[in-house]
């Protein structure tokens, strides 16, 4: 489906906004590599953001809506309100509040509000449902044991996918060694189960015209807050003001300097499973670095 097709989009919006609406403009949004995305303008001037994909991915949108609602309930960082999701013909869709976003804003506020979001905790690590990380499945089986969670639901899960996708046997074996050894990195550190964005790279943070931060496209679960901070460092886009404000609100443990490589290994293995090529070599280097620390 072309997201600019008013005839196909209109029934999606009517399911949640009523039969009497009329669409005047559909503007295809840039930047999305998984879903077809567009900004939809109605005759009365209201605007909405729409994501569309194949019908079989409805649960991906349902999980995203649940994640956005979890972040909204924390009353910390702003995130778009999910207005509805469903299937129309052969297409699944997610209808979201439209927010006028820009690339630059108050990073100090973003850091402080992320720390506030992380103060919202649960009894167990994981989440009540699985979701996706990019285009990959993400399991969130709940447990009180964070090390076990990371071994099984994160590192082990991606390693097995990588093995099937051609990850070199030696690198895979080193990954298994690391998986069984990561408890050493948590000898003096027992993280709380914080509410996490889960996919917090620079492309998932933007700002309203008044400079206030907005996060979106989450892969929500509860776990070590260091995982969110680690990913902010993986691809850049977060400045010194962001980190200073976060640490002022809730200082990071000294062991973060080592553990952030472990946490980002999950994302690099996921990138290998999605895109292949040089990400496998990067994952192997990260694994060797971590094994040397243990």
UniProtKB/TrEMBL annotation:
GO terms of molecular function: kinase activity
InterPro entries reported in the protein's UniProt record: Fructo-/Ketosamine-3-kinase, Kinase-like_dom_sf
Pfam families listed in its UniProt record: Fructosamin_kin
Assigned keywords, A-Z: Kinase, Transferase
Top-level division of the source organism's lineage: Bacteria
Family listed: Belongs to the fructosamine kinase family.
Protein name (record): Fructosamine kinase family protein
């Amino acid at each position: 489906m072309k997201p600019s097709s008013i005839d196909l989009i209109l029934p999606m919006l009517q399911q949640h906004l009523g039969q009497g609406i009329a669409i005047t403009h559909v503007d295809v949004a840039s930047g999305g590599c998984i879903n077809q995305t567009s900004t939809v303008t109605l005759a009365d001037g209201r605007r909405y953001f729409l994501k569309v994909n194949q019908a079989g991915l409805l649960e991906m949108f349902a999980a995203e809506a649940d994640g956005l609602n979890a972040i909204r309930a924390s009353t910390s960082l702003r995130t778009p309100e999910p207005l509805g999701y469903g299937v129309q013909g052969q297409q699944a869709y997610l209808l979201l509040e439209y927010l006028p976003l820009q690339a630059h804003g108050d990073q100090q506020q973003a850091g402080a509000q992320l720390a506030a979001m992380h103060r919202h905790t649960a009894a167990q690590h994981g989440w009540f449902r699985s979701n996706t990380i990019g285009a990959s499945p993400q399991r969130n089986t709940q447990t009180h044991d964070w090390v076990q969670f990371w071994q099984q639901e994160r590192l082990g899960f991606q390693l097995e996918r990588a093995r099937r996708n051609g990850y070199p046997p030696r690198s895979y074996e080193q990954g298994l060694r690391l998986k069984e050894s990561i408890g050493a990195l948590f000898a003096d550190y027992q993280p709380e189960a914080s509410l996490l964005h889960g996919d917090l790279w620079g492309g998932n943070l933007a700002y309203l015209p008044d400079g206030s931060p907005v996060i979106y496209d989450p892969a929500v679960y509860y776990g070590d807050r260091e995982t969110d901070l680690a990913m902010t460092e993986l691809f850049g886009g977060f400045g010194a003001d962001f980190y200073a404000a976060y640490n002022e609100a809730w200082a990071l443990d000294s062991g973060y300097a080592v553990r952030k490589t472990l946490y980002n290994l999950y994302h690099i293995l996921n990138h290998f499973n999605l895109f292949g090529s040089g990400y496998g070599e990067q994952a192997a280097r990260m694994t060797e670095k971590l094994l040397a620390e243990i």
